[in-house]
Amino acid sequence: MDDYDMDSLSDTSRMIKGLPPYNMDDQLLPMERRSTCGCWAWTCLVAAMNSLAFLLNFLLMATIFAIVLLPTIVVVYFGFQCHSRVLHSTASYCKTILDDNSSSALIILGFVIMSPLIVVAMAIYCGLVRRLRLFLCFQPWARATYKGVKWRWYEDGGLCGCAKEWSSQVKAWV
User: Fold this and answer.
1) Does residue 142 contact residue 26 with C-beta atoms inside 8 Å?
2) What is the mean pLDDT of residues 89-117?
């Protein structure tokens, strides 16, 4: 303590201005900025790749939810189709099997079983996305601004991470 002058040190004198990169070997130090035209071109490319990754995730989620929620959709559809105050279809099953009380019961049953099926669909979607590593398809915007930023998915075994085994090392700043 005698070597340091306590009055000249402040609480903020050694603070880091920003978080360091996750892995110093992945980037060229110091990173070089792109030209204006190059930055715009790479921005369009990164935006197109991120839009494609978003579309892929959205289509996967819509497909899984449509398949898992199909029983609810069918039950509610038949309930609304055969109820006399909603659509009142002239189909034979509406006249012989389903009256207003049973149609109301189908509507209620459909909405009651919807909540657990939404949880199941979301669990299936999250598990599949984690297994396929689809969120690694999103690229950072620094890829467009700086030279030397590597593609996130390249060293992890391709787009879905199938070529390498699971990485047990988590790189995150806490």
Assistant:
1) no
2) 89
Interior/surface letters 36-70, b for 16+ CB within 10 angstroms, e for the rest: eeeeeebeeebeeeeeebeeebeeebeebbeebbe
pLDDT at 35 (0 to 100): 79
Confidence (pTM): 0.63
pLDDT at 173 over 50: no
Do residues 50 and 57 lie in contact, with contact meaning Cβ atoms separated by under 8 Å? no
Residues 111, 76 contacting (CB under 8 angstroms)? yes
Q: How far is CA 123 from CA 53, 66, 84, 115, in A?
A: 20, 14, 37, 13
Mean pLDDT for the chain overall: 76
Place of tokens 């990754």: 53
Q: Alpha-carbon torsion 93, 96, 99, 105, what sign?
A: negative
User: How far apart are the C-alpha atoms of 82 and 74, rounded to whole Å?
Assistant: 12
**Positive or negative: CA dihedral 52, 53, 54, 60:** positive
Of 81, 74, 86, the residue nearest 110 (C-alpha):
74
